[in-house]
Queue: 3 jobs
Job 1
Amino acid sequence: MVKRYFIGFILLLSICSTATYAQSSFNGASNIPFDGVNQIEFYPNPAVEFLSVTIKNSNLNNVQLELFSILGNKLNVSAEAMGGDRYRFDVQNLDAGYYLLVVRDPVTRFRETYKFLKK
């Protein structure tokens, strides 16, 4: 049982990006050149009080942002809309450590996961 969780944890870590600026194409295919769609920026990394998220060149219709602990537990932290495609999470009450930001759109089936550090 522990081995299964450990393998899942290692797989989850390998999926996450440590970059604070990430670009992803809508179709996700690696052999198709990047077309500048759905540029996701999140900063600062490491975060102390707030984590800001900006989505540029978006074709997303129903963006959903969620935070998870590094173990995969969903956190009860809501994104505050800052206008346009800008959002902000209040992370000052979170313990120091690594967390996951999930950006998804169920309409277009877009889903990306990013790792950030909370100091």
Job 2
Amino acid sequence: MRSSDDMPGNPWPHDMQVGVEECWPPLIYLLFVRSAWRLDIDAVPRLDSEPDPGSSDRPENLDVDAARRRWLAEWQRAWTHFDPPSVTVSTPDETTQHLLDTLSDDELWQVTSTWPSDFWEAGIDRDACERWRSSMAAPLGDLPETRVIPALAEAWRAGLTTVIQLPYIGSFALRINQEHLVVSPTTRNDPDLYARALES
């Protein structure tokens, strides 16, 4: 989001740019999998409503405990997409160098990518997941950010570059680093809650 002009009285600073990720695919996909496969993972907040799984179904003979552990590991890895970029250039450590020396490009991508692995493909209705993801975008011209411009501008001056909305239930806000704020739809659509989240 950015102001298109520099008119006097416009409350949006002309050079302010703040991105909004309403439905970042890797996180949404993993949340869909958790729901469709009925994985009980309390470490991540519940959803405001469970998605329609379509034809999704948990694979037979799935080791549920192992799937939970794998889901959490991939969930944590997906969040590294939002880590601040490293400003230093260093030589690879021993583990990284071993991966570079022994894995093919495809294998290396699987190990280092922040996208979910192919493990989750079985038993997932991709079309149902995409319908759920598409339903989350705010209508054009009705962005909640226009109702909290003063708080948003202060957060931007303090380093905020991106707001990440996830379909968590109720009020939720977490500043995961200087540049990124995670909010639920309830928080983002309530000007008072959203302003407090931006000020935190």
Job 3
Amino acid sequence: MTKRRTKGTGSIYEQHGHWMGAISLPSKNGKRERLYLKAATREEVVDRMGYVLRNSVVGSVVGTDTLTVADYLNHWTRSDLPGTVSLRTEEIYANLVRLYISPIIGQIRLQKLQPADVTLMLVELSRRGISSSTRRMVRATLHRALRVAQYNGLLNRNVVALSIQPRSSFHEQRSMTRTQAIRFTTAAQNSKLELALVLALSLGLRRGEILGLTWSDVKIVDGVAMLKIHQQLVRDSSGLHLSELKTRRSNRQLLLSPRIIGLLLHHRDEQLVEAARYPQVVAPSGFVFTTSAGTPIDVSTLTKEVATVSMDAGLGRWSPHELRHTCTSLLLAAGVSIDEVSHHLGHSSTAITSLFYSHSLIESKVRTARAMEQILDPHSDGGVPIPMS
């Protein structure tokens, strides 16, 4: 016999191969209205009903009540989103809601939101000059928020999935030539952050990956020096702290060249001398890159130093991410395989490397063009082995 649920917590029953949950909730007109939830398993229905009963905001969603998109998104960013993504990503989502979504469609009732409303919002953002990448992030944020509403029975469908996706405008990433890269590393010799700048250019490390390095990440295995990349230094509303890398493939080990090993040893010696000279000021932290007080360097400091050194080298203003692009382009131009480069950079897949750096695969394109020319040449065997009879 099925155990009877406590009064006020709704009812659960099986219907046509699915599980149904029914909850009676008060609406703003003073009457009680029935909310029905549907799921594949009983446990899923229980989970969704618990969400409804825990969150008072849902009481405004039932029937023809007046909960707006802005009200729901405010609830989502405060109650549902925290803990499901990193704090930095949480802040990005909240800013996209505050700056772009709520000002345009926030006044629309959640249950009345249509795909056309989402499309018109994206069109309006385009008219205001908002980039296609930002518009795609806005759409993805709204899609994620409404997916939670749909999962918990607040909406029957996710209208974002039916809206028009912003067209992606691809801009070829800027990278230095080999000559420019040599000029940059030469100018970096006058910087206290020379090692960090060389790591950005030679290894293509991200800004947070560089500043998140600790001395324990430098390993000597069978006489080979390796650098373990497994964390990053980030700044968000909680301050400066270490965080996990975004994807599994971002965790990687990179071989260090003799030049980088030499810079590391020199940097370590200077750090130890500084700590011994000012023991009352310098607190040991284990980080490779620290301030004069021994604390981690802020991520914005590296950005400013890259700009300063590139200007001193007569190259104009460059960013840490452009040094990463330079590393990729130079490796591909030198004939390093795209698989090796993708692993070196910690890309989530080789498809990402191919998409953004196809312009650097000159040799591969030449080989492809020559192969097709030979295949279609009537005086050639096509370069394809002829099977023996």
